[in-house]
Amino acid sequence: WNTFWDAETHQTDEGWFAEIRIPLSSLAFSVNDDQAIMGLIAARYIARKDEKHIFPAIEPNWDMADFKPSLARDVVLTDIQEQKPLWVTPYAVVGLAQTRNPDLQPVRAPGTEIPTEAGFDLKYGLSSNLTLDLTVNTDFAQAEADALQVNLDRFSLFVPEKRQFFQERSSTFEFNFGEEGRLFHSRRIGLTPDGQAQRIWGGARVAGRIGSWDVGGLAMQVAGIGSNPGTNDGVIRLSRSFQGGATVGGMLTSRIRTQGRAAFSVGVDGQVPLGRELITLQFGQTRNDGAGGFSALERSSARALVERRNLDGCTRAVASTRSWASNADATSPGSTRASATDGGRRARPGWLAIASMA
Question: Alpha-carbon distance 68 to 210, whole Å?
Answer without folding.
Answer: 22
